[in-house]
Amino acid sequence: MKILLTVSSRHGTTDEVADVIAEQLRAAGIDVVRARPEDVTDIEGYDAFILGSAVYMTQWTDEAVDFTRRFRDALRDRPVWAFSVGLSVLPKGGLSDLNRIGPVLLPIEPEDHLTFPGRFEPDRLSLRERSIARVGGATEGDFRDLDAVREWGASIAATLCNGL
Fold first, then answer.
1. What backbone phi and psi angles, to 5 degrees, belong to 154?
2. Maximum separation of any 2 CA atoms in the chain, in Å
3. Which residues share a beta bridge with 142?
4. Is 51 left (phi over 0), alpha (psi -120 to 50) or beta?
5. What is the CA radius of gyration of the chain?
6. 154 — alpha (psi -120 to 50), left (phi > 0) or beta?
7. Ranges of the chain with pLDDT below 70
8. For position 140, what pLDDT does the model report?
9. Most buried pick, 9, 99, 147, 161, via CB within 10 A?
């Protein structure tokens, strides 16, 4: 089984979450190819997909949105899981909110979508990003729950290995 895991990350946190997911899939014997969504030109040969994006101002990155638009029809025909990383002002836990990301994901009907809390390190952000985060009430810190990410990755692996 071959899985394409696309990840759009701005400051590395979403990449780190994707690494944990890929680790769980590989531990189950699944072949995982990681790619930036903007670098993918063809999705033939993949059995399933995991799409991930950082969330800024309640939106996926432009690159992740473009990927779903370019491959929408093909993605509808195969299993797709999606995850978002951000919203660090929310309490720890798995928030699933398709109202924020819905316009991107609803047309491809993913098996599941989770939003994982991210990390807010002001010194890694541009002045504009820091200003927006502060106005939005973001609290500095690392809010990632990598155990929850591992659990989700393992559940995808189990689903794929058991024949969806």
1. -65, -35
2. 47
3. 119
4. beta
5. 15
6. alpha
7. 57, 87-103, 120-122, 125, 129-130, 132-141, 164
8. 67
9. 9
CB 104 within 8 A of CB 64: yes
Residue with tokens 């993913």, as numbered in its chain: 110
- Residue 133 near residue 158, CB atoms below 8 Å: no
- The structure tokens listed for 59 are 């939106």
Domains in the chain: boundaries: 2-161
pLDDT at residue 63, rounded to an integer = 95
Q: What is the pLDDT of residue 103?
A: 67
Token pair 């990449």 is at which residue? 15
Nearest to 20 by CA among 162, 148, 158: 148
Alpha-carbon distances, residue 90 vs 9, 94, 116 (angstroms): 19, 10, 10
What is the pTM for the complete model shown? 0.82
The residue assigned the tokens 């807010």 is 120
The one-letter code for the residue type at 117 is P
The answer to whether 32 and 64 have CB atoms below 8 angstroms apart is no
Q: Considering only the top CATH level, what class is 2-161?
A: alpha beta
